[in-house]
Amino acid sequence: AETALYAAKRMGGRRHAFFRPELAEQARRHLALDGDLRAALALKQFRLHYQPKVSLIDFSLEGFEALLRWEAVGKGMIPPGEFIPVAEETGFIVPLGDWVLDEACRQMREWLDAGMAPVPVAVNISPKHLRNRSAEDFRRIIDRHDLPPGLIELEITEGAVMQDLDHALTVLAALKAMGIRVAVDDFGTGHSSLSYLKRLPVTTLKIDRSFINGVPQEREDAGIVSTIIAMADMLGLHVVAEGVEKTEQANFLRHHNCNQVQGWLTGRPMPADAASGLLKERLREPA
Ligand code: C2E
Ligand code: MG
Ligand code: MG
Ligand code: MG
User: Fold this and answer.
1) For a tag site, which of 49, 75, 80, 188 has the least CB within 10 Å?
2) Which ipTM value was assigned to this complex?
3) pTM of the model
4) Which of 236, 157, 158, 170 lies closest to 203 in space, CA to CA?
5) Does the entry feature the keyword Membrane, yes or no (predicted)?
6) Whose CA is closest to 180, among 220, 262, 125?
């Protein structure tokens, strides 16, 4: 849930306008959580789960998105929505984000060494992580595992780009030159304009789940989704629909020539060994 602190932050300039004791209490809780997160990294309590991205033509596996999980002792699996915002606020997201990329690359190397098909893995890069890293920094992590850069995709939000447009444009252009794929995540929910989308050196648009939700029955959502797909096609971008839960949604997307889907209909996020199982099945499929 969105906390008062973030709500205050979103109000931008007005955030220091008044003091409320709840905010001080919140700051203390965030500091404590930040300490827990740092300890969790040292204690190796973070895991990556992998959610399939599949072709809309035959639902065959075409990639995975790596999603972060925190296996806290006694508290079970904590979803990223409960700690990423705090990590973003404190800056811990930078070492944590480096760990995520490194771990996804390590897993990919393990899969390749085991003879699995080279299926690209996407990693989420937060706004602060992007602002604090160069394309070479990302490249160095990928190189550590001796991977072809084309097997790694970075997912960034429109917000991450807009926070520091000059830096983002520099990093994205360098990543593109290195052959590292970049997707715009949660597309349609940010404040980007079409004029800057044209300038963004990205490979993929991921249509946000909130639009997919209303498809096909809500006229506005259906219009927005089909328009994003048509626009992506015109800009030469790959397009992925997030949060596809129903067959009717997949049918609508296929009809409108969307490239890929990712959602509960075609696969929930799963631990690495279950993802390995899918890769092995793929190996057994006739070519
Ligand atoms: P996201 O990158 O947009 O990831 C997609 C989210 O939608 C995931 O939630 C996924 O489990 C969920 N999802 C996928 N298909 C469906 C569906 O059909 N229905 C519904 N209701 N949900 C679906 P998750 O894993 O809880 O992650 C939430 C967000 O946390 C991610 O949104 C991303 O912004 C952030 N996140 C996750 N892992 C990382 C990470 O390693 N680094 C950073 N910086 N952010 C991360
Ligand atoms: Mg994502
Ligand atoms: Mg998304
Ligand atoms: Mg989303």
Assistant:
1) 75
2) 0.98
3) 0.92
4) 236
5) yes
6) 125
